[in-house]
């Protein structure tokens, strides 16, 4: 009997008992920590979506869905980590589990990198305020008014009424066309036979008239800069003006119509393409 | 005899027995866990495909095939991980197995990253509802009606009746052309000899007529904006209108025909290209 | 003598004996497992190639070769893993072997990633049935009839009789031109002097005739849509029709010949390019 | 009783006590170090933003936000590392936690690499002073005046009044157009019938006049280089000059107007495109 | 003395002796295995190059060189691995050596990935027989006859007599132009004044003649398809034929010459570009 | 009391004392090594910047700044490594710290790879002397004189006076235009009616004259090569010459002016574009 | 005293002594191995550069520099590895050192991958002899004579006398234009009114003459292939010939001049562009 006791005593040595105790303690600890982290994560997600809770019903619906997806993801990840740790505590080797999860993780990570890039760029767009809702901008080769700035996608609406969804990660250069004033450039072609100085004088008068008539949208000019080009069939004079950003197209139309009407009055013609014809002498005989 | 017992006792020391016991326990645990995970995985897959079970026979067939493929994949992966863990429990070194599987996994992961990207983008397309079935959209340089939105591929059908299968990963910018109203732009060329104001008046009348005749599809306009361009051989006037998205081509045709007919009535000609001919004097002699 | 025994006893302590026994057991286990996996792999490969065994002699030959190559690869890999595990069991450090094999594996994995991509995409092409043998498709910028769909390469044959081998990995967008009906578009140019309504009436009659004559290949139309463009030298009217997918080119030719013949009857001319000539007055003197 | 003591003594062996003591010591150490690093990090961030504190209110606001974001990030990272270390000290296996965090870290790292590239390039732009505020430069295909040089984004404003936000990472080649002097090139076309030497003499005089009139902006020239091209319809002579960088457009306009006026005086014409007409003899009959 | 013995006995304890013995055994094992692997590798390389031993002297020379280079590489790698393992057996820590070699290996692996890709693609080209020596193919944008298919490079010789060396890795799409029959397409332009039906009849006769004269190279046709295009200045009729792949250029020339000669006989002209001239009335006065 | 001593003795067993001693020793060693490496690093940096110390004040200033930045970086890195090693010596687990630093390191490493590439390419440019200061080169699509060759950026100044900063990593192909002699190519167009042999004789004389007049800058030629092209409206003859690299533009101008003047003397005309006009007979009636 | 001895004996137990002895042995071994490897590396580098030692003084100078740089690099790397191993032998944890060095190594490895690629491709260029010094080749879009084939860069010199330095890694397709014979293609345009058969006869005679006159450089032909194209304004006949690779430009010029002269004799004209003019009847009135 005593031998058995001794044998058992050797069996359940203090070392072993401590180990078992510690293992139990650790298991309980893992369980509690997992639960706590899960609760904290839920709380964090709730706050995250509450903070951005807009009155729009559609967005609220979307947030709800996104919230429940993220909670599921969090739950599965925490369960996986907790379970793996428990196995390790029990002395089960988990290298192969972790290696497997690692390979999957890396594959997903690779595929998800454009998603991560979208979100990081989205964050900086929101943070640096390169544009705000309603701005008229040009991103990724597309012009339009900013309709929505999301974490992953920016929506812009062009003049044709079409909405372009542009992933933030494909936004490199941001051109904000909602400046305080934009430049209008009109090139006026006159005939080579035409006296340049006379034409410039007429255009100067025209500029003065336009300036007086549209003071509300003009910031600066219009001014005649001079001979921009000795072109193939015409001398081109350039007029520029700084106007309100959304009036540049209208201002261009006004100046062009004025030029045509002023030139009609003074009987100055805007020249067509010219071609000098040479007839071969031997053929003419 | 006693020596043998003692020798055996030393042989089968408590430590060893515990180790053997633990190993057996772990093996049984691994077996059960693998089975459980397999069953859970099967159940999860069933539910995943049940949830998306459409009445379409073809899709049901496909889901069935996909389901059985995924089950096979899951089974092989779990068997591999379970087997490797069992080997480790038995003290067989498995570093080389895991390293081998890792290299294969990384290679497959690299090759599969566009697949993962397809699925992640597909998920966001479904989730963010950038377009729905039946929308007329432009993705990856291709316009068409959305026929099917899959996890990996989106199918669109263009006006020529052709179906384009576009992997979701190659969808960057999504342009949704199914707006509430789209813009029609018609540029009308008139002769430089023509009085601009007169032409604009005629076009204004025309716009009014079109507006009254097609109130059902027109949202706004048509309006004459003015002199868009002093072109090489003509003065171009611009007309714009906002119409139902799928009526823009019809509306363009209506306005163009009206312009031709109104101009014919008033005997205004739409000018051809002009060329001013200069004859070399010395050659003319 | 007794000391020697004791010394030996200490030498061949139970612990050591167990270790040696275990090592032997593990070596035998590794040997058996390797053999079993090899046999299972062979069996699996046999079944894989048997399942796809087509009656074509050439493919059978190819499968045989591929089979023997894959068996060699499997054999070398299993021998390598088994050998490394045996070394580890014998206590020989194998870190450097595994590291070396890892670097080679990663290098090969990098180089092979386009191969893996080919096969993964090939699998999805086969699985999603985006096209089948005989379809007329457009992939990777090349149009043609599908001749063969392989795991790595898809072969298409164009109208010129040429075969294009396209690696599956370079197939992004799949355009299947074997639709139920495809659209034919013919733009007819008429002179600006020509009465539009008259021309449209003639084309309407023509459409009716074509429709009646070719009911077997026409699904819908042909219809005159109206004034498509007020072009530089002509007014362009558009005719469209939906026809059998492989009759679009024939239908285009029929409509064009009909247009020419109908216009010839009514003496309507298809206009050449127009140019308005202006002579400089001063030069004319 | 004594046995219990002995048993306890064996239980709480010096080894164990030392281990427990050490663990407690380490836990305390980890706690203190984490706190210290947090405080030091805060201090460092404060100084970083203080050092760049500009009087601009908007930037101060942004710095404040950025500061609080970075502090949060730092806090979470330090807490995570500290917590994991504590778990390890307590003997809880943390491989799976670290592996999980590692995968997330690598994914974020991949997505963030363009951000890191922006900042590294930004640092070198600031450090190498390739351009300073107010310079007129060309980067990433965009010309404009430098408005702001940030760590992530450089802002330039073009002549049209539009601001372009260019991520530093997309700046490859930097062309600084704010040179001490820039070259103006004007090509003057004269008729093939025209005597070249005479034309060159006239242009030489013109250059001399321009030089005297605009000494303040001209650094060198203008000079007539000679026959640049025997073009299709004209002999082209080239004039070049070095002027103040922002006067090149004005100088071009001045020279062009002068050329036109000087040629008008001497009745030299700038030729139109020439075409030699050959009439088919058989057709002329 | 006895104490010394005992001390020594404790020193050279069985455990230690076993360890030393094992180490010696392992060292010898490593030495033998390295030697064996080296010999096996040499043998394998010999067989590899013997198997591909062509009678061409130049290739034999090259194989010899390549063989000796590969043997050197193998020798250095095996010596490195063997040496590192020996160090580990001796208890020298080798982590830093392996880490260093790993970094070098990864760098080389990255740089070598295009080499690996070349070889893998080369293997598949040889294996899938997409083309054989003498075929006329188009790869990587280059057409030519296949001169040599190597593991790394494919050589093709174009009609100009130039040899293009194309790395296999840059071969994506393989177009094999050595088809059983290729299509010839000839578009014949006739005047708008010309009767279409008459022209088609003439071309039909011509096709019949060509068919009879060149039966040896023609597989199908030539056939007149009909009105291919109502072009700007001509009605275009299309003739197609299927001929031997290397006769398509000759057949094109034959048909074109025949068309010209047949049209000359019937006095049908192939039209030049047409232009309708309109003279401005006001200018004519 | 004795028991306490014994207990303490067991507590502070030789093993423990040795361990403590060793730890202290190692800590001191780490401290000293860190200090030494820091000093050595400082010394190395000093020498590096001293060796390249140019008399230019601006560069000295920059080196100073760069030096202090690099010293800070070195200090932080060494402190981090030293601190981590100290923690490990104290038995604190540092896996999580190293993992964290590793992720940051990899992210920075990815972002910095273009920087590393710049510097490596820069080193080879300096080392291989592909170009030196003052050379006229073409790199990355930009021509100019080399102003500065830096480790990261090469500065070139073009003829317009503009400085281009080109990161060395974007320099692929280096074209050095500062050759010993460069070729001038002038194509002279003569009329189809012109006798070719006569024109060649005139050009030969011209070449002889130019050669005699500009012996200082001409290395070889100019020579008339013969009929380069039977172009659309002219026969083109080619003249080539080898001249000093920076005289090619001047030589081109000289030859062109000479050609015009020689042709004027002999009354040979340089032809304009030719067009053969055919009048439709039916229209002429 | 005895207790002290015993205590010391327990202190300096055989185990410890063996450990210390082993450590010393290992340290010495590391020292010696490092020295040996360094010497061997030096010797290897010497031989490498001696083997390629050309008589050119410049290259000798470069090799010397490169040699000393590589020796420094080798020395630093070996010292680093040796030092780290020594630390490990002394029981100092080196994980953090190796991790740090690893991150640096990976960053450098990434940046250096294009360098490694250059060298690997360079090796294959040298080894596969795709071109040799003096060949006229086309690589990376640049034609020229091979001046130097280096491990990193290949230098080619074009006809303009300019040297292009092309990194071997950017050499994909190698086109060797130094073939045994290259093809000359001349397209001759004749009038549509011209009798084709007559023109072909004349060209046949011409080919015969050219063949007889230039037998030394002609390998095959020249031959008249027939009607290459029924072009817009002319019938194009094609002549081809195989000539010495560097005579193709000269041969082209000879054939073109001959064509012009033979046609002049027979009064056959090379046609200009043709245009059929139609005059609007209503305008002519």
Ordered list of secondary-structure elements with their pairings:
7 copies of one chain form a homoheptamer.
Chain A (H helix, E strand, L loop, with lengths): L1 H10 L2 H38 L5 H33 L5 H34 L7 E4 L2 E8 L3 E5 L5 E5 L6 E3 L5 E9 L5 H18 L4 E13 L4 E9 L4 H18 L7 E7 L1 H4 L1
Antiparallel strand pairs in A: 1-2, 1-5, 2-3, 3-4, 6-8, 7-8
Work out the largest interface and the residue count of each chain: B-C, 66 and 71 residues
Quaternary state of this entry equals: homoheptamer
The class by helix and strand makeup of chain A works out as alpha+beta
Shape of chain A: rod-shaped
Approximately how much beta-strand content do the residues of chain A carry?
Answer: 15-25%
The residue ranges of chain A in which pLDDT falls below 50 over 5 or more consecutive positions are none
- Quick one: biggest sheet of chain A? 5 strands, antiparallel
Tally of DSSP β-strands of chain A: 9
Q: Tell me the number of helical segments of chain A per DSSP (H or I, 4 or more residues long).
A: 7
CA distance, first residue to last residue of chain A: 143 Å
Q: How helical, in percent, are the residues of chain A?
A: 40-55%
What is the overall pLDDT average of chain A? Answer: 83
In order across it, which strands form the biggest sheet of chain A? 4-3-2-1-5
The CATH topology of the largest domain in chain A turns out to be Helix Hairpins
Number of domains of chain A: 3
Radius of gyration of chain A: 37 Å
From the coordinates shown, what is the CATH architecture of the largest domain in chain A? Answer: Orthogonal Bundle
Helix and strand pattern of chain A: HHHHEEEEEEHEEHEH
CATH class of the largest domain in chain A: Mainly Alpha
């Amino acid at each position: 009997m005593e031998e058995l006791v001794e044998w058992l005593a050797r069996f359940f040595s203090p070392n072993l008992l401590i180990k078992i105790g510690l293992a139990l303690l650790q298991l309980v600890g893992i369980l509690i920590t997992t639960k706590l982290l899960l609760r904290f994560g839920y709380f964090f997600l709730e706050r995250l979506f509450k903070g951005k809770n807009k009155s729009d019903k559609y967005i609220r619906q979307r947030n709800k869905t996104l919230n429940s997806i993220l909670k599921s993801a969090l739950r599965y990840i925490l369960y996986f980590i907790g379970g793996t740790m428990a196995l390790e505590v029990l002395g089960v080797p988990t290298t192969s589990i972790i290696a497997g999860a690692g390979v999957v993780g890396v594959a997903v990570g690779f595929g998800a990198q454009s998603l991560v890039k979208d979100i990081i760029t989205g964050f900086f767009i929101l943070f640096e305020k390169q544009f705000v809702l309603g701005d008229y901008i040009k991103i990724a080769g597309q012009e339009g008014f900013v309709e929505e700035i999301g974490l992953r996608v920016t929506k812009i609406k062009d003049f044709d009424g079409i909405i372009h969804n542009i992933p933030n990660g494909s936004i490199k250069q941001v051109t904000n066309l909602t400046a305080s004033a934009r430049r209008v450039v009109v090139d006026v072609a006159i005939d080579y036979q035409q006296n340049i100085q006379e034409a410039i004088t007429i255009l100067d008068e025209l500029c003065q008239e336009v300036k007086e008539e549209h003071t509300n949208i003009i910031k600066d000019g219009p001014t005649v800069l001079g001979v921009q080009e000795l072109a193939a069939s015409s001398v081109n004079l350039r007029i520029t003006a700084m106007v309100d950003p959304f009036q540049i197209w209208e201002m261009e139309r006004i100046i062009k119509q004025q030029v045509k009407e002023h030139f009609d009055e003074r009987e100055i013609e805007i020249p067509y393409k010219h071609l000098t014809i040479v007839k071969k002498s031997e053929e003419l005989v």
